[in-house]
Amino acid sequence: MRPGLVIRLLVLGLLVAFIFAPGAFGWAFAPLNRPNQPPIYTQSSLLRLTLSHLGIVLGAVLAASIVAIGLAIVVTRRAGEDFLPLSRSLANIGQTFPPVAVLALAVPILGFGNGPTFVALFLYGLLPIFENALTGLTATPPAVREAARGMGMTGWQRLVGVELPLALPVILAGVRLSIVISLATATIGSTVAASTLGEVIIAGLLSNNIAFILQGGLIVAVLAVLIYDGLSAIERRLGRRGGAPLPAA
Amino acid sequence: MSQPTAPMIAIEGLCKDYEGRRVVEDVSLTIGRGEIVAVVGTSGSGKTTLLRMVNRLVEPSAGRVTIEGEDTRAQPPHLLRRRIGYVIQGNGLFPHRTVAQNIGTVPRLLGWDRARIAARVKALLEIFQLDPAEFAGRLPHELSGGQQQRVGVARALAAEPHLLLMDEPFGALDPIIRAKAQEDLLAIQKSFGTTIMLVTHDMDEAIALGTRIAVMDQGRVLQYAPPEDIIARPATPFVDALLGRGDRPFRLLSLGHVRDLLEPGTAQGEPIGPEASLREAFAECLWSGRDALPVIENGQALGIVRREALARQAGRPQ
């Protein structure tokens, strides 16, 4: 086994152990706090918060992926070419809007809870996925495109059989970027009562409890690193299969 | 339905306009069954557009094309294209699919069953001298340029089309592999009887492969004739220029075989085979300073070919 893999498995093991039995790690966090402060967050279970955090992120990225990839497919067809500039600016607006502002605007409509966070992450996730899907779908080598048409593939067969598989590594890179951004951004959702790991961080900030802040932050960071790593590995494998150069970033 | 007596391709008054500019101008030509027609021209002559109008990758502005007597507009373009083999420069193999999957593309589109596709792929790989056990599962980027090109042609022939369209099929190959690829194509064409319409900018390639050559310039066909006629009687100064004055006698010689000029007798030195071109024989005479070469096939002496006879053959036909 390669050392990189050993370290990753070790980190994953630690993360799982901590989420399932945070009490056992009290000794590690206690030195950060004053003696009378609790070292481990116990108001809600870390397992439940982690799952909910991941659920919101994956749900929002999934929705963003469907919309962004769908949009990219539409504007790379001949019939949809005219909408390319419009769709680009829409995705850009989603990115320029600060997530906090989205939260503030969405609360009056959706109320407190997971809803506003979901909307903010969805909007924030659109751009990287859309841009990468666009890059991937327009990068089909002209000879391959020509051969596919010349052999009598229909538009749908070319999309599903040739263009999407070839674009997949680049599209996945966009999804990966979106997931990592969303994992971090989701924490601020707890300011409007979304059930995410941000709750632990905010509790720490309110009660001046450094151990809480660190716990929340560490879980999010480790999740982000592991997911980023895993998706990168999948992309590399797909890229190698396609014989394509590795997508940047 | 196709008519057995109709020519393979009949092009009638075909025109194509792009943004008000006419790139193909009133082209009419027929291509018989089993012919290899090479369309030669400089870039921008409209030769590729003409080819692409046959399988409707480009829709004609005027005129019509019939294939085996059937108007190409009688069916949707993608169904038409599945019946016609298509090979392009750089071959356009699908980089994410194996050699076997690439070759099986059109049969799969046509809904052949799995066993039939597998058998056809295996047969084609053997014809193209690619060991199925070794190559079927490889990805295109794991092949050499020459192997990729062969897979590209095999893919075009997979569904047993009567007609094969080729757009600069050997353009990306180096000269040695290119000559071999041309030879292989001729051999395969002979055994399948496939009609080929081939676009090239290389007059040597057109002469080597074509039973007839169509010379195009500025969207028009200037001359459509067998290679001997093109070389002997170029219709316009442009055709003449394309042939290159200095090369004409040698181009003419390249059309004949040593067998045609065989004479009884004996000669000294390195022998030559009866299927070698007259051009090769003449070059060998000049290079080795001999007046005649012995002709030997499978170790058996057939006679000689004389330099004088070769030189006479290189003169303008009367």
Automatic annotation (TrEMBL), chain A:
Domain of life, source organism: Bacteria
Keyword Membrane annotated: yes
GO cellular component terms listed in the entry, alphabetical order: plasma membrane
Keywords, alphabetical: Membrane, Transmembrane, Transmembrane helix, Transport
Xref: PROSITE patterns: ABC_TM1
Domain ABC transmembrane type-1: 50-231
Residues in the signal sequence: none
TM region(s), chain numbering: 50-75, 96-115, 121-144, 164-190, 210-231
GO biological process: glycine betaine transport; transmembrane transport
Locations listed in the record: Cell membrane
Family to which this protein belongs: Belongs to the binding-protein-dependent transport system permease family.
PANTHER family: GLYCINE BETAINE UPTAKE SYSTEM PERMEASE PROTEIN YEHW, GLYCINE BETAINE/L-PROLINE TRANSPORT SYSTEM PERMEASE PROTEIN PROW
Protein name: ABC transporter permease
